[in-house]
Design brief:
Blueprint (H helix, E strand, L loop, with lengths): L3 E5 L3 H13 L3 E5 L2 H11 L3 E5 L7 H10 L8 E5 L4 H10 L3 E4 L4 H13 L10 E3 L3 E6 L2 E11 L2 E5 L9 E6 L7 E11 L11 E6 L4 H23 L7
Parallel strand pairs: 1-2, 1-3, 3-4, 4-5
Antiparallel strand pairs: 6-8, 7-8, 7-10, 8-9, 9-12, 10-11, 11-12
Length: 247
Amino acid sequence: MGKKILLVDDSHTFLMYAGLLLKRLGFAVIPAEDGVELLALLKLRKPDLVMVDVEMPVMDGLKVLKYIKEDKEISHIPVVIVTSDSNSTTIEKCNRLGCSGYLLKPIKIDRLHEVLQHSFFSHRGACRKCLRAPYREKVTVTYGGSPHETFAETLSEGGIYVRDAKPPKVDEKVEVSLPLTGGSPVSLKGSVIYRKEKYGDFSSIPAGMAIAFTGVGEDITARLKAHIENMLAGDLLAEQSETIIKC
């Protein structure tokens, strides 16, 4: 089960679009429309993170942030401020009150990923640098001199996870050919950094291997990033006629 995010905004449109995007990023979303509803849900639903707008009726985001950080029972919960207010005074005040991130509307997908990774994992020194998306496409992985057609599970700018009942050993050099939007399929060199055999454990991860790409040029990296962002939010962005979540 993904980490739970309590998403608070008085805009129904923002709750819908941002909530759906967060779900696609692998998080469970608890929506709330104002600070009072947020406070009622905090101890009941026990979220792992709170994302709250600054300008809300009844109880604004700054008051919510102050309340959370002064309550010892819930002060450990990271709070990300979401607002269209880029005033440095507001940003400094939020930082002094202990927010873990500050997102400006319109929200850029890569910035959202960066802030969430920092909020959840920076204390472990294990932030995921690259945006990752589900990728259920057929790909060709060549190793041991032979091509193997299989289905992928996830894709990022830095690598891919593909299904394979008998994956090669870790550090094996491979080549992956995969389809991307906006052009012909691309071939990427890489190496196996993780493998899971069919009966290796009882996790939900299918048998296969994680491959880290190596020597990827800037043009292909840009295509990978654009493809991943399109998979995660292409339909949402098209509905808004924007390239960012803006509500």
